[in-house]
């Protein structure tokens, strides 16, 4: 049976999105593709326009510490998912495709493209019913149409995309009758002539000593015929010491399969900004692609994501950046965030939606039962774990800032937005990457790059006098790290501030040398050392536990000035207990290592986020006095000189990001020589 579309919808169509199932079905990711329970809006209040109660099946917003023990809804059996494009529904059962990867994000197509209606074509075999739903920005689920099917059938529905101004999705549920119903495939299409572009993509994948991850992603790309039809080249920029070319037995079959669609480039370690800029540079110089897609090496790739990014960019009313969401590689049903902005008063990252949340678990809160996921999230940037950038944008605003590892993607999004090129984080386009909660990326050597690059971003983009709150918050950060006995981290932050005040002229020259310099500093600091085994340290012993042995709590805002003053007196003027030099006074887990807790001890064993190392922090009043005195001088200078530094950085920005400047940096940072060359890279120096 065929449910005919209106005559006006018979124009040549182009696929916007198709139904997909996981390449490697596992219980943790199946809820992102298909569910087997009927579901409604999480609460009546959300349908009425009020903020809804939380879905009782999912953890609370308070995070892991406040989460209730919950039971996940019953998922689709792994053995049922045998095909990439469809599945068979047992008799008297239902399956919903109102999921992250299979619902259609109508609000985004309504906002950013000229598409005002889509065709949904569903091919089935067997008896049953198809129910099409839509939602609004409040997350209210609304039945749109019901169609009965039997035998071999293609159901074609024309769906308006006009009333999704602030949010909303389309999706369909399929119900089997007395016998099984096979969903053979489904596609969402639109008139092909609405597309502004039909360009190729090139991928810019930066890698450093993550050979297995990188090879797996290359193999996934090689195995996707549909992706390869729209891809010009995958540029793999190898900046490591353990290089892909050192593994010819694994690399060469992929080189043979991909041919000219794989270009391996080796260069020195100049960070993510250097690796991604190289891929951008090569794509623009080659002149064959309309887009470049930045791509981390240590992701798990859903190849359909790349096709969706390219398709959305083709249909966008004007050129724009289109990014993919990040899921937690170690907890694969968990979405890192739905969209992010930069709070320019503070120059910190913020959720794009006030009622959104970090680390949303789709196995407990499905799309259909989570109202805030239905409101469109308008973002300032997208992480470069995967983000499509039109080559037109590269040519107009340049490449990345030469800032190594942090803030390169967010700064680029802000710069593109100023030039009239917005960013969208596209639902239904996602990859899996290690979550920030599993990293200590604000401590040790990375603290330098967080601090320096955040300050540079504020100098370039903050619209507020002297960057709003950033100087004050930076000073608070120095106090927190110092009273936490994190002397190495604080020394790295002070060096970052000093380098910012020296101006932008040295950024390119330092990009390949600053990391070794920062890491070398660690040898001076006990808190930067560590051991894999806590038993390597003396046993924990404390004569008089702080706070009379009661649990330590963060000081309330009203008491914070007095608390800070007394803590500083202790840190700067009171000698640590001698017993604390011999034995750590506490063992503190990484998630508990807050500044207000560590400040109560004279020494402590502190574990890292990965759980691989323990460090012994010991209070040193002399070190603390020197660090805080330097921090006070630095921030007074930074506040005083802000207008001058702002003018210098903004005047230098175009040159810093130019093709010519980056070309010199690529040439100045070649890959280290190797004694043998078993699998020679396809390219090693910048194109002309």
Automatic annotation (TrEMBL):
Skewed-composition ranges (Basic and acidic residues): 663-677
SUPFAM superfamilies per record: Nucleotide-diphospho-sugar transferases (SSF53448)
Pathway given in the UniProt record: Cell wall biogenesis; cell wall polysaccharide biosynthesis
Domain of life: Bacteria
Keyword Glycosyltransferase: yes
Sequence similarity: Belongs to the glycosyltransferase 2 family.
Name of the protein this chain belongs to: Glycosyltransferase
């Amino acid at each position: 049976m065929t449910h005919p579309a209106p005559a006006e919808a018979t124009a040549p169509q182009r696929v916007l999105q198709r139904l997909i199932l996981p390449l490697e079905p596992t219980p943790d990711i199946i809820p992102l593709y298909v569910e087997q329970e009927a579901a409604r809006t999480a609460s009546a209040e959300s349908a009425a326009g009020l903020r809804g109660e939380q879905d009782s099946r999912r953890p609370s917003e308070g995070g892991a510490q406040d989460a209730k023990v919950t039971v996940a809804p019953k998922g689709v059996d792994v053995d049922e998912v045998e095909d990439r494009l469809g599945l068979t529904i047992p008799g008297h059962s239902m399956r919903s495709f109102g999921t992250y990867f299979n619902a259609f994000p109508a609000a985004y197509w309504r906002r950013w493209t000229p598409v005002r209606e889509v065709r949904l074509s569903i091919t089935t075999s067997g008896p049953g019913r198809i129910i099409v739903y839509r939602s609004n920005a409040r997350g209210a689920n609304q039945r749109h149409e019901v169609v009965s099917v039997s035998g071999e059938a293609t159901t074609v529905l024309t769906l308006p995309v006009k009333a999704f101004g602030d949010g909303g999705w389309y999706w369909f549920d399929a119900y089997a009758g007395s016998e099984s119903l096979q969903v053979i495939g489904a596609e969402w299409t639109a008139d092909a002539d609405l597309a502004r572009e039909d360009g190729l993509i090139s991928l810019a994948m930066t890698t450093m000593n993550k050979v297995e991850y990188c090879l797996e992603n290359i193999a996934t790309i090689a195995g996707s015929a549909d992706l390869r039809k729209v891809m010009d080249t995958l540029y793999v920029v190898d900046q490591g010491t353990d290089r892909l070319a050192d593994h010819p037995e694994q690399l060469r079959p992929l080189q043979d399969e991909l041919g000219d669609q794989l270009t391996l480039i080796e260069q020195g370690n100049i960070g993510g900004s250097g690796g991604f800029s190289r891929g951008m540079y090569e794509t623009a110089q080659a002149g064959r692609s309309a887009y470049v897609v930045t791509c981390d090496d240590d992701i798990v790739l859903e190849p359909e994501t790349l096709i969706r990014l390219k398709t959305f960019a083709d249909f966008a009313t004007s050129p724009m950046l289109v990014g993919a969401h990040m899921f937690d590689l170690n907890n694969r049903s968990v979405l890192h965030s739905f969209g992010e902005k930069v709070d320019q008063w503070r120059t910190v990252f913020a959720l794009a939606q006030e009622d959104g949340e970090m680390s949303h678990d789709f196995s407990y809160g499905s799309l259909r039962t989570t109202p805030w996921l239905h409101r469109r999230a308008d973002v300032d940037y997208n992480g470069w774990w995967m983000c499509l950038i039109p080559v037109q944008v590269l040519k107009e605003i340049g490449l990345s800032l030469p800032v190594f590892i942090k803030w390169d993607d967010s700064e680029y999004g802000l710069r593109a937005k100023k030039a009239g090129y917005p960013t969208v984080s596209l639902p239904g386009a996602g990859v899996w990457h290690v979550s920030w909660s599993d990293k200590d990326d604000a401590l040790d050597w990375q603290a330098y790059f967080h601090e320096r690059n955040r300050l540079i971003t504020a100098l370039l983009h903050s619209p507020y006098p002297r960057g709003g709150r950033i100087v004050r918050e930076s000073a608070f950060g120095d106090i927190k790290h110092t009273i936490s006995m994190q002397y190495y981290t604080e020394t790295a932050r002070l060096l970052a501030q000093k380098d910012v005040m020296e101006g932008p002229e040295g950024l390119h020259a330092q990009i390949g040398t600053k990391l070794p310099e920062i890491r070398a500093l660690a040898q001076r600091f006990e808190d930067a050392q560590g051991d894999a085994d806590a038993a390597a340290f003396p046993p924990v012993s404390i004569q008089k536990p702080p706070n009379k042995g009661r649990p330590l709590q963060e000081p309330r805002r009203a008491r914070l000035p007095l608390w800070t003053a007394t803590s500083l007196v202790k840190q700067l003027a009171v000698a640590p207990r001698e017993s604390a030099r011999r034995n750590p006074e506490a063992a503190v887990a990484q998630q508990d290592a807050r500044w207000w807790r560590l400040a109560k001890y004279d020494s402590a064993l502190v574990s890292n986020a990965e759980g691989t190392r323990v460090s012994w922090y010991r209070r040193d009043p002399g070190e603390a006095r020197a660090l805080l005195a330097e921090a006070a001088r630095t921030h007074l200078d930074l506040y005083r000189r802000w207008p001058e530094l702002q003018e210098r950085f903004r005047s230098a920005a175009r040159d810093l990001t130019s093709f010519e400047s980056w070309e010199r940096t690529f040439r100045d940072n070649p890959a280290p020589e190797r004694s043998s060359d078993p699998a020679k890279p396809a390219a090693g120096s910048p194109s002309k």
